[in-house]
Amino acid sequence: MERVVMKFGGSSVATIDKIKQVAQLVVQRKQEVKDLVVVVSAMGKSTNHLIELAGELSNEPSECEMDLLMATGEMVSSALLAIYLNAIGSKACSLTGFQVGLKTSGAHMQGKIENAGSEKLDQCLAEGAIAVVTGFQGIDEAGEITTLGRGGSDTSAVALAAVLNARCEIYTDVAGIYTADPRIRQQAYKLDHVTYEETMEMANLGAKVLEPRSVEMANRYHVPLYVALNTGDIIGTQILSEDERMEKTTLTNVSKIDEVLLVNLKAGDNKDLNITECFLRLAHAHINIDIISHTVDHEGNRLTSFTSTTGSKTKIERILKELAADYTFTEDVSKVSIIGSAMRNQTGIAARAFDVFYAQDIPFYSVSTSEISISYVVDTAASNQIVNALADEFGL
Amino acid sequence: MERVVMKFGGSSVATIDKIKQVAQLVVQRKQEVKDLVVVVSAMGKSTNHLIELAGELSNEPSECEMDLLMATGEMVSSALLAIYLNAIGSKACSLTGFQVGLKTSGAHMQGKIENAGSEKLDQCLAEGAIAVVTGFQGIDEAGEITTLGRGGSDTSAVALAAVLNARCEIYTDVAGIYTADPRIRQQAYKLDHVTYEETMEMANLGAKVLEPRSVEMANRYHVPLYVALNTGDIIGTQILSEDERMEKTTLTNVSKIDEVLLVNLKAGDNKDLNITECFLRLAHAHINIDIISHTVDHEGNRLTSFTSTTGSKTKIERILKELAADYTFTEDVSKVSIIGSAMRNQTGIAARAFDVFYAQDIPFYSVSTSEISISYVVDTAASNQIVNALADEFGL
């Protein structure tokens, strides 16, 4: 292995002892690879503390200053890790976002990576030192320090791996990507391989493993991505492209998202609800809507339903009232999804899934399909039962 | 007033409430001046906490990493102050050492300022915003973040004032520069004016007001320097060059330094001690030696004495033993100094001071004079008495 970028999140470097543990893993990896870059997040909840301090000074702190404030968290953890690596005899240098040329564009606190790489980083690696890089931060065209928003450190790591032509290893609190949430399904098992597309679909459909942004970037730049436990002693999950996957599985994952709100609209001939107008207004109010279904009943009424989150209920209700819509809410529902790129080639998966619902006598309100997933809206009370039944059927 | 650089130390921004107080003073000053730069240190003891963390990881943390680690303290305080200034309606931007182009040379953790100023700083001021700059830090030629060592934030402020052609105002816990330490002499009073030279001499001779480095730089670049209380409601002390001072005073200050070690060496004809060799070895061991005096006694013995600090006693003893020197130590002594550039032109000051010692019946072991100061080595037990007596004589 020539080059590797390892990434450790906030909980992996939360204390001095954890930093020492991470260092052991890093030193071990350095013996196996030529060039090693380590990307770290801020220690535990240290960034939250800084946000609280800012909150005491302003209700709406200026984002440019928040970026500088928050970026200090990663500087502390990267400096400390480098200090310890040097102390135990492994040459290391800490490098900030701007020192590794991590150029961003876009708004403060949600910068998008435009470019990465610098002479300083190359020089550090050329000297055989481990480059310990601050995650989550970059610098924009105007020379302002920026932060990358949610999942920023994963994205920093993938971006550096892309420019260095390196493998990217994300170390976290879980041992890899599972077929289902082990808290819901005891028999869930870790996948050895999964595709970029499936990982992105999982992230969008409730499996909290990797931020879709970083996976998308890894896919675009063909960065081999690997997720594993931050102790390093269990083999994790390799994320690769469809054509790299040797073993063909049927499906890879069953996920669920709770706190879904199902909105049912009824429009007859007389009281004509303009559905387009309704969706435009919801979009304008930044309300995400998801599974949309539409039918016409026996009396000729047009029935439309869509899902959103329970958190958006008040806003949605206000808009529907303004439009004098005839609506009902179905609450305490969940979205259960099965995911697998094998769906593209294999037929009958939808039929088998429908059979499971029939056999379990669990009704679903709504269904939507993508190229590599099928999602069902069901009562939350029945959601764990159906997750297990679907996992049984597809061996997940 | 066109341009002003205000500097606030760590204790002035130690808490959220203190940051708010500083902001009030800054906003008030901004109404009086066109361009305003504010340089801040890290909040209270926050840097010490970071140093402790590093200490848990390494006995000798790499200095390059320590610089990055310590530099975060000032980033936090400058971001927080800028957040609050914006919150109360005063446009402000926070800028780091590298963003204001504070270029340094020399070793890590003790960088020397080579240059300062950047487009970003000019732009911020041109927009009428208050530039809130991190003190104590810069960037070196290799693009490494550096810190400036002791008194670094004062020096940052003076360097920025020099390039901006601005007045530099240092706000601290004391109301200005006093004729003597008020804890020793109740009648000590604040000086309205004092010269750069006197201030440097005072700093070297025990008055802990400003680091000599920043005063030296202010002197070199003709930066008007002002020291005042961080609440801003008492007029402080203006530091200026000799020819700018309107009122002519005799002396400006009486200071003392405790924990002085007096070393007495005796070299006869037989056991020839090479004094030069001795001083070279002490210098090699990084031991500062100060007042040196030399006489020959009635029997032809060469008597040499010098002062150092009690903290260096063990090292000094080791070296003297290696040289088989005939030595004694006089401990519990202090160095009392009178300072004033008026010494240059006024005669009789030394005589008046000697008279004070005679009248008080206090002996001194050693004396040294510079162009603008006279220092006496006396027993610590008598030091406060002589400080007061000298202050009485010279009206300090």
Automatic annotation (TrEMBL), chains A, B:
Any single biological process term in GO: homoserine biosynthetic process
Transferase found in the keyword field: yes
Molecular function terms, GO-annotated: aspartate kinase activity; ATP binding
EC number: 2.7.2.4
EC top class named in words: transferase
GO terms under cellular component: cytosol
Annotated metabolic or biological route of this protein: Amino-acid biosynthesis; L-threonine biosynthesis; L-threonine from L-aspartate: step 1/5; Amino-acid biosynthesis; L-lysine biosynthesis via DAP pathway; (S)-tetrahydrodipicolinate from L-aspartate: step 1/4; Amino-acid biosynthesis; L-methionine biosynthesis via de novo pathway; L-homoserine from L-aspartate: step 1/3
Keywords: Amino-acid biosynthesis, ATP-binding, Diaminopimelate biosynthesis, Kinase, Lysine biosynthesis, Nucleotide-binding, Transferase
Domain called Aspartate/glutamate/uridylate kinase: residue spans: 3-228
Domain Aspartokinase ACT: 336-394
Record field: catalytic activity: L-aspartate + ATP = 4-phospho-L-aspartate + ADP
InterPro entries: AceGlu_kinase-like_sf, ACT-like_dom_sf, ACT_Aspartokinase, AKii-LysC-BS, Asp/Glu/Uridylate_kinase, Asp_kin_monofn, Asp_kinase, Aspartate_kinase_CS
Gene3D superfamilies: Acetylglutamate kinase-like, VC0802-like
CDD domains noted in UniProt: AAK_AKii-LysC-BS, ACT_AK-LysC-DapG-like_2
Annotated ATP binding sites: K7, F8, G9, G10, T172, D173, Y178, R183, K208, V209
Binding site for substrate: T47, E74
Biological role stated in the UniProt entry: Catalyzes the phosphorylation of the beta-carboxyl group of aspartic acid with ATP to yield 4-phospho-L-aspartate, which is involved in the branched biosynthetic pathway leading to the biosynthesis of amino acids threonine, isoleucine and methionine.
Similarity comment: Belongs to the aspartokinase family.
Name the record gives this protein: Aspartokinase
Organism per entry: Pisciglobus halotolerans
Lineage of the species this protein comes from: Bacteria, Bacillati, Bacillota, Bacilli, Lactobacillales
